Amino acid sequence: MASAQETALSAERQDIRNRWLLSAPALIIILLAAIGPLFIVLIYSFLAAGPYGDVEWKFSTDGWISVFLQRDIFDDTLSFADAHLAIFWRSVKLSIGTTLLTIVFGFPTAYFIATRPERTREMWLFLITIPFWTNLLIRTFAILQIIRNEGIINTLLIKAGFINQPIQILFTDTAIMIGMVYVYLPLMVLPLYASMEKLDFRLVEAGYDLYASRFAVLRRIIFPLVKPGVIAGSILVFIPSLGAYVTPSLLGGGKNMMLGNLIELQFGQGRNWPLGSAISITLMAIVMIALLAYVRNAGSSEVRHG
Amino acid sequence: MPDKNAIEVRDVSKLFGTGDAQFAALDNVSVSIRENEFFTLLGPSGCGKTTLLRLIAGFDYPTDGQILLYGQDIAPLPPFKRPVNTVFQSYALFPHMTVGQNIAFGLEMLGKPKAEIEARVAEMLKLVRMEALKDRKTSQISGGQQQRVALARALAPQPKVLLLDEPLSALDYKLRKEMQIELKRLQHETGITFIFVTHDQEEALTMSDRIAVMSAGKILQVGSPWDIYDRPAVRFVADFIGETNFLHADVVSANDGRATVRLSSGKEIPATFPSGSSPQGKVTLVVRPEHARVAAPNGTSAHVGHIENVVYLGTDTHFHVRLDDGTPFIVRQQNSRNGHNGFAKAERVGIEFGQDVAQILKD
Amino acid sequence: MAKRRFDLKALPGFTTIAVICFVALYLPIIILVAYAFNAATSTSEWGGFSLKWFASAWNNDQVIDATIRSFQIAVLAATFATIAATMAALATTRTKAYRGLTFKYAFINQPLMVPEIVTAVALLIFFSRIKVWTGYAGLGYLIGAHTAFCIPFAYLPIRARLESMDLTLERAAADLYATPFKAFRRVTLPLLWPGILAGFMLAFVISLDDVVITNFVKLGGQDTLPTYMLGQIRRGITPEINAISTAFLLLSILIVTLFFFASRKRD
């Protein structure tokens, strides 16, 4: 008969073996249909472009060079690819802008929900949750219908006599930003609310007791305590903004591309898969850097969804 | 009463962690628990009492040693193969089942026929006086009722030993008192061996046939409540259970369980000592506060000192005395209706011992 | 009248901004829904109430076809993802840290960390290779891709449920002679059920809503409802899209409502 300590050891080993077996399906699916293909993208970025899309299996750094530089057709000299740089700049600019605007609007909204009485709080939270889970395409479409030249804003303004010509909002950077703030706002409000819900309002009372003004209470007490929520929300908004595809392609049109559209272009009409791969890897690298910065800041607490 | 052992714990150690962080939750513990006994493991939190209970239940395996249930080593068996049931501190009632379904669970798992299960559940409900609540969800009954269901559930499969892990700690004072009596009744009616874990010395003294006092992974003393209270073997036991005075003394003579010691006042008094020890030289004595009296100093006084504080407690008065050798000494005297005991702060008093009140400690 | 009492929780302007946010979140959707009932062909003027765009969507074979495909994929992907996520959650909770645990967390949550467009082109490359090798051209690619990105969403509520579950309940079952398998079936699974249901619903909605990955992975004639709509919007706006969106919205709201109450009502 096995001794108790042998039983304990083999039980522990078996437990860990079982845990690997149990997680195997999820790990394999994600490996095959999410992580693994990323390595193929990395490989493709170092291959030569095929004439009709796809790649030729020979090593080439052309894909990477073309991310930021362009080769002159006549004299082979390299110069900065202004078009690509502009798209990178627009993506970063609009993503940061979107993040900041969602904080500006999301912070008071989350605070508003968190300070509602227990009974109605659920309802307000529910109202934020619905857009969170409704189709991003539909919500982008809703914005598109409002801001286009024949949309309700321009129609009303013209009817009211403020303007004779519709204001061109659609197909501008502003349109993309409005759309992204609109679709990603719930992603900011939910983690903010999660950290505000835990806020101990006796601390606010203590602040007022110690002669703090409303602004001082907000800046010195509330904000520091809900900072983890602000950081989590910023990450949740910044990452999808940077990689946004649907919103800029519907609201930005062909001229105001973001990185997502640039990548699509290389796999479509551009027929430059290595360049598309290299841009994809670059985009992922920027996201990873942002995530690492977040992990550094927020300790080991994980990114929460919903 | 038969002296057959239900549980025998032999040289059991349980180590947690590795390397420098390793510590022994149980350090070479041996103890025998008799059939039909109400046995209590008593000690402060972290002393290893719950670990020992978990080893007997099978939720953990000992690093070393054996656990015998009626002679068979059960230490390597998983919990579902041991005829031992547990009443958990949190009760651990299944929230998705009714009271009746909870009680039936163990019997079902043992594959008992339906009719037998139903009869047994009814019997158990009657035993714990919960017949009316059979179809309630466990979240719809009070804490005290949950406690009874937990008991019924653990008793239903007629285990050879019932383990109780601080089962009364979540109840309020009055309910706890009621349940103490209830538990004694259940143990008496079912004739099952109970192993009870608690950190409450009063609870242990009230309910147990025998008590094992534990500290830092070791069992320090096993004995009847009377033994433990009046004949503590070591300082920790004396200190943990009730209030105690410690006095220095020199052994004058010792044989046959009786000793004579000289106090620092020069007075010689008789004392008892734990079996298996042979006291000599300088020793520590314990005297319970209620076994001494304050009186005007005279020739029969064991010690002389002055009163530092008088604390009135309703039933008793505590006299905090500073003996002439500097040792603090507390005397507890029962109050009578007509006024207090007549001594005031700063007054000089003599301490008088009753018959046979001093016990010599091993350490 | 005394001065207005000082409200500890109020901050100036916050309520105004919050109300603006709620209005701004819902107004575009309400307008979108309103135009679905517009009799006029143009979406810029109101031509009276009509259900004709719903009828036209209903009679559009492409719409019906895409809807059925969307549901096929969502049901299968959510089912696979929920099963895999439940197993993974059981393997990664209620244990002391063991080697590989952090690795598993990172792995399972990876689809949340990588921009969708990157995963989309990665799958495009990978699956186009497989298609060349095997000749397979069925829905399997989409189902596989959807399963992968649904796993972290299904995993979240299941894991949360498991972590809040009292470990002593299973210990009590074992103490009452339940073998590990019976303890799982009789105690763990019934208690986990609301989490599994919530996980399934989340995965279902996420799969149903997906545009980007589907748009890259789909083969010819494999449009789902969102990719069909994307194509139509790019081509030009008709109120039919509003009608489809309205129906879609209704379905999403229904599922989210179910999810919201399933995950909140219990304990």
Automatic annotation (TrEMBL), chain A:
<feature type="transmembrane region" description="Helical">
    <location>
        <begin position="167"/>
        <end position="193"/>
    </location>
</feature>
<feature type="transmembrane region" description="Helical">
    <location>
        <begin position="125"/>
        <end position="147"/>
    </location>
</feature>
<feature type="transmembrane region" description="Helical">
    <location>
        <begin position="273"/>
        <end position="295"/>
    </location>
</feature>
<dbReference type="InterPro" id="IPR035906">
    <property type="entry name" value="MetI-like_sf"/>
</dbReference>
<keyword id="KW-1133">Transmembrane helix</keyword>
<feature type="domain" description="ABC transmembrane type-1">
    <location>
        <begin position="88"/>
        <end position="294"/>
    </location>
</feature>
<feature type="transmembrane region" description="Helical">
    <location>
        <begin position="94"/>
        <end position="113"/>
    </location>
</feature>
<keyword id="KW-0812">Transmembrane</keyword>
<keyword id="KW-0813">Transport</keyword>
<dbReference type="InterPro" id="IPR000515">
    <property type="entry name" value="MetI-like"/>
</dbReference>
<dbReference type="GO" id="GO:0005886">
    <property type="term" value="C:plasma membrane"/>
</dbReference>
<dbReference type="GO" id="GO:0055085">
    <property type="term" value="P:transmembrane transport"/>
</dbReference>
<keyword id="KW-0472">Membrane</keyword>
<feature type="transmembrane region" description="Helical">
    <location>
        <begin position="20"/>
        <end position="47"/>
    </location>
</feature>
<feature type="transmembrane region" description="Helical">
    <location>
        <begin position="229"/>
        <end position="253"/>
    </location>
</feature>
<dbReference type="Pfam" id="PF00528">
    <property type="entry name" value="BPD_transp_1"/>
</dbReference>
<protein>
    <submittedName>
        <fullName>ABC transporter permease</fullName>
    </submittedName>
</protein>
<comment type="similarity">
    <text>Belongs to the binding-protein-dependent transport system permease family. CysTW subfamily.</text>
</comment>
<keyword id="KW-1003">Cell membrane</keyword>
From TrEMBL, chain C:
<feature type="transmembrane region" description="Helical">
    <location>
        <begin position="12"/>
        <end position="37"/>
    </location>
</feature>
<keyword id="KW-1133">Transmembrane helix</keyword>
<dbReference type="GO" id="GO:0005886">
    <property type="term" value="C:plasma membrane"/>
</dbReference>
<comment type="function">
    <text>Required for the activity of the bacterial periplasmic transport system of putrescine and spermidine.</text>
</comment>
<feature type="transmembrane region" description="Helical">
    <location>
        <begin position="136"/>
        <end position="156"/>
    </location>
</feature>
<dbReference type="InterPro" id="IPR000515">
    <property type="entry name" value="MetI-like"/>
</dbReference>
<dbReference type="InterPro" id="IPR035906">
    <property type="entry name" value="MetI-like_sf"/>
</dbReference>
<keyword id="KW-0472">Membrane</keyword>
<feature type="transmembrane region" description="Helical">
    <location>
        <begin position="241"/>
        <end position="262"/>
    </location>
</feature>
<keyword id="KW-0812">Transmembrane</keyword>
<keyword id="KW-0813">Transport</keyword>
<feature type="transmembrane region" description="Helical">
    <location>
        <begin position="112"/>
        <end position="130"/>
    </location>
</feature>
<dbReference type="InterPro" id="IPR051789">
    <property type="entry name" value="Bact_Polyamine_Transport"/>
</dbReference>
<comment type="similarity">
    <text>Belongs to the binding-protein-dependent transport system permease family. CysTW subfamily.</text>
</comment>
<dbReference type="Pfam" id="PF00528">
    <property type="entry name" value="BPD_transp_1"/>
</dbReference>
<dbReference type="GO" id="GO:0055085">
    <property type="term" value="P:transmembrane transport"/>
</dbReference>
<keyword id="KW-1003">Cell membrane</keyword>
<keyword id="KW-0997">Cell inner membrane</keyword>
<feature type="transmembrane region" description="Helical">
    <location>
        <begin position="71"/>
        <end position="91"/>
    </location>
</feature>
<feature type="transmembrane region" description="Helical">
    <location>
        <begin position="191"/>
        <end position="208"/>
    </location>
</feature>
<feature type="domain" description="ABC transmembrane type-1">
    <location>
        <begin position="67"/>
        <end position="262"/>
    </location>
</feature>
<protein>
    <recommendedName>
        <fullName>Spermidine/putrescine transport system permease protein PotC</fullName>
    </recommendedName>
</protein>
